[in-house]
Amino acid sequence: MFAMSSIRPALLGLLVLLPAPLNVSAIVYVRMKNERGPMAARAGIQCLELLSDTYFHMLDTTQIENIVIFYLQNLSSPAREILLGYLQLHHTGYDNHDSDDNDDGDNVKDDYANGGHSLFQLKLMSDTVSSGDIRRAQFKDHKQIDYYVIVIDSFDGLRRALDRISSTAAFNPRGKFVVLYNNPNDRDSDQRLANEVLMLLFIGHHSVNVLFAFAVDATSYHVYTGDPYHGATDCGRMKALKVATVVNGSFTTRALSTTMINIPKVPPELGSCTFLLCTRVAPPFIDLDCARGLELQIMDLLRESMKFKVNVSCREMDRGELQPDGSWSDLLGLMRDDECDIIAGGFNPDFDVHDEFGSTTLYLQDYHTWYVPTAGPDARWKLLLYIFEVSTWELFACVLFVSALVWRFVAHFLPESAAHRQLSICFLNTWCVFLCISANNRPECNALRMVFIGLTLYALNVTTIYTSILITMLTNPPLAYQVDTIEEIMASGIPIGGRLDSEDWFMNDFEDDRLVSERYNATSEFQPSLANLQAVLEGKRSLLMSRLYVRNTKYYGEVHGLTKDVFVTQIEMIMEKGFPLLPKFNRILSNLIDMGIMQKLWNDFLYNVTILDWIRANRALSEEDIIAASPEVVLTLDHLQSAFALYGIGICLCVIVFLLELMSKTRWVWKMRDALEKKWDALLVRLQLKELTNREMTIKPHIAALTNGSQFFRSCVQRGLYQVVVDMTGLTAPGDCTYRLGYNRKGAEEFRSWPFRNLSAPSRIKVQQQRRRYVVMMKWEKSKLDIHVMNYCLAVSTGRRQRTLCQALGNSIHRPPCDSIAVNDYLHRLAPWEERKLDAKVETTIVCTGTRTRQLIRGMKPNVTYFVDVFAIHSQHNNLSFLLGSTQVKLNRTRPTQLLEGKIVVGKLSTLGGISLFNFKVPKRSPNNFFKLHLTPCGGTVSLEVLKKKRRIMEPVRDVYYPRTITVRNVRPGERYLIRVVEADDTSRLNRIQVAVSSREDFLDLPRMPHNTTITELVPLRKCHSSTIAWFGSPDKDVTYCVYVFKLPKTQYYMNNIKIPTYCELESRDVCNHPQFHNKHCFNGNEFNPLSLDIPNLLPEHYYTVFVTAISSRGRSLPYKSVRIKTAPYCLDSNQIPTTGGVGIGKGAIKTIGFRKTGGQKRRNTAIATKNALADRGIAKRSRKQRERSNRNA
């Protein structure tokens, strides 16, 4: 029953020449299997359809997805037939009855029939399209491609296809690729070629979502995918992982293959991955030492959320620009050369950069403006004149002149002395009063006295106002004119410039911006730095800089930024378009912005640079520095220039008047003067009014004193200087009175015999060491003397005992002079604290507790003796205190536990305040420069540090909450290392940990664990009474696996009082007696990897916690990371009935080979997705057998 097809001519000729026996009636020809026939093409088309249906789906999409099928010319057979058949199938649609021919449900073509539930936009690309057509297409379609299908017969063909695909603007590195390779001449290089294809897409194009199907024969394909981020030691390295085998268009194990294909390439936590962050120094986003900054704080939030590590490198480079040859400079060039994964440093969005690179969500704003020197104070000699305006000075001169005339006029008509009748003396008196200077000639008449009083009050007000404004002008002198526009900067002619990426803002058609662009400099002298800011301060240049950068430097306030901002930019981080963490970065940043965390970081920055830094800087200044920093406090010659100028004017006027007086002594001047005086006197006599006032003024002193003396006594006074004033007014007897003043005070001997002091009794002090590290609770008894009014203070000293409260205060940080203060008032300012930390810089720390008799002290150092003294202070009598009790405290340090190879050591965290210490000495003959630690927390979360001579040799490993193997590198044989395990969560019930150590690749007597110890629940196989889990097996052969299942109460799933056994309690004999225990099963499973297990006998819509342990041949075990599973809320058919037999008995027995399939199970209509596995997408129709079976059951 064989049909003869194409046979080579040579072979046909040989067959014809052979003689045939006479009794033979027919000849049957047998040929080799055709590798290029229709069967091979049909198998390839079906493989592409199966992979695209299984892998091409996206969650939470609101747009029609698009797919690109790349057409390569000159493909060999059968690759060309596969590509053409796949294209024809997608162009002509599908037959609605194709699915009826397959009973196993693997053919899912009906999803695409007539639009179906998988609508997509089909695009075709080819290597025959010219470069001009590609450039024109860039302006038509910018929507990124979701899926790519490429059929190749050689590695060079894939390289050509990717070069054309990546040159388009719609290229999406995070899209999903399906690459099918079929070459009849190459059937054995699947592993090597899979590595090359995955590395080309991962390194060359930053793509990780790739499926590579290799034809091992005409109808069978091995499917590979990449796993770059799940490794514990090789994170970031692409590893080819075989996930499925397709034979004639069907998976050999459909459920397992579907799950393995859709496992996320990027896990939720990347604890073993380290990314390179290249930063540009741009405070405050990246500080000068690259250890602080707003963007580093944001990166810390991202790192803590996804548990990855970051190596920060500090650079002085700029962002980078596109070069004529197509390469990039500076930081973008380093990232293109794979020397950096992420770059940050106050970068603003740029269209050219976004065409080639990816970027995060915009999270901060930056304001840029031009900076010029701040205008200094104006000439100081003008201060005396700047106080009032010119019109005010003129008014003062008029008041002075009018007052002098009024003085002279009133004095002329009243019986005043001759001095008050001279005009010059009147001017002098008025001027003296005007300046609030005592005048020698005071008026005698009441009328002139009223003028004098009014003028004095007026002068007092004017002088007070002048003096107050003068003090303000001296301390805060007015500033000179401040340059505040770009036009004034351009007119001054000083050089201008800034960063290179800021020059684009001025390259436009506006005249003002064009003038700025012509004079713009981008050399190193115009980059933001402290040296260039000093040049700006000196007026040598003007820089375009960020306001935030200047605010973060010491030049803030010394250089002036223009009031109007030049431009405002958003801040982003830049990375490659295919960076795997970019979508999660954007999602986390959006959440941080919505929750106000970014605004909180901004407010903290403003608070730190405006308040805390100012306080910190002033604390570091001495008194001389403060005086030097405020030169306006001391009057200089500049301030007195106006005063000296006025004095010089007065001297000049004096000389002029002196010459005039000499001239007035001449004879002809005397004659003219006498004539004028006679006429003037005659005029005044006629108008003068004489006032007759006779007043008798008698002063009678009265002195009175007590004849028998008096005494004054005041108790409880403080030491110091007192002034005693004796008032002798009211004495009746005239004459002198003598008196004697005496005083006395109590001495030291009388104080020792004071009865209040002897009534105090010593109190016993009780010391309790707390669970937290180096925290001690002090308790003491109350004083028996005036128990209701006593306050207490605690003195903790490291040098000696404190006998008195004054001695303790003198040794404290405050050091008040006890002889000149009120102790009660001083201690009242020391507010009581529930908890107080010791100050290591002082010998004695004072803690006042009020009426409380307990105090919590933290910060004590181990192996140090502390002297504790309690003083009682009377609250109603000042300076009444006494020593109530004394004791000594010394904290002992716990010695670390010795670690031995091959032995599991249990450490307790509760004995040392949440810390457990271990030490390990690397064997001298160890050939390796590393050792491994296997850390198992018994519930809760811990952090691990490795130290050598009190110095860290590696970054701390934080938030370890499941069994984990940690490799410590760069160690030396024969040296001892300290391992510190710290409890990270105070709220957990963690009190023990298990630690194993090895200086070799594996642990002695312990099973070898895979890199990925995660247990995954296969959600597509979830049922109402069972669920299936899968995990990677141990590389060892003779390994036994034990599965423990614990039920969680349905009503208490979200409550904290559920007690589930920890990893350390699984080997206990009482684990089966636990109230939440469900079942346990152990088996030897080395035939399959990954392993799977069906867990039966479960309740519907319940949660269960599953533990898996691997046990070596010697009986030592290590646990996997636990998983929480959930059963379906309802049963889809009546055949799912839980078995009543035990584990491993009957139909419900646990199986270790593949996944159990229950007959009659219906396909689900909705997609179910959890964090442990991905569900199938789309809707699959029932097969013909399923419909027939349903009809029979009905």
UniProtKB/TrEMBL annotation:
It comes from the Eukaryota. InterPro entries: FN3_dom, NDNF, NDNF_C, NDNF_Fn(III)_1. Residues 1-26 form the signal peptide. It comes from Anopheles epiroticus. This is Ionotropic glutamate receptor C-terminal domain-containing protein. The lineage of its organism: Eukaryota, Metazoa, Ecdysozoa, Arthropoda, Hexapoda. The chain crosses the membrane at residues 383-407, 419-439, 451-474. Residues 964-1131 form the Protein NDNF C-terminal domain. Pfam families: NDNF, NDNF_C. One of its GO terms (cellular component) is extracellular region. Residues 776-890 form the Neuron-derived neurotrophic factor first Fn(III) domain. Its main location: secreted. It is found in: Secreted. SUPFAM superfamilies: Periplasmic binding protein-like II. Keywords: Glycoprotein, Membrane, Repeat, Secreted, Signal, Transmembrane, Transmembrane helix.
